[in-house]
Specification:
Radius of gyration: 22 Å
Oligomer: single chain
Strand content: under 5%
Number of helices: 3
Structural class: mainly alpha
Order of helices and strands: HHH
Helix content: 55-70%
Length: 67
Amino acid sequence: MMERPHVAAAPNALELDPVIECYKRDVDRSLLRENLRRSVDERMANLVELQHFAAELRRAGRVARAR
């Protein structure tokens, strides 16, 4: 019979990880909820728009550095 590898016991669900709690303070959950109300197609379209915007910012940065 094969033994299962040792698995650490799951922490008590009521114990909060202080590192995670620190990061959660800076998360705007209203933006997450707003985004999740959108369809997958809408979210993908927004992602494509964001990628185009990022590419334009990179291009503008290269132009500004070249001057």
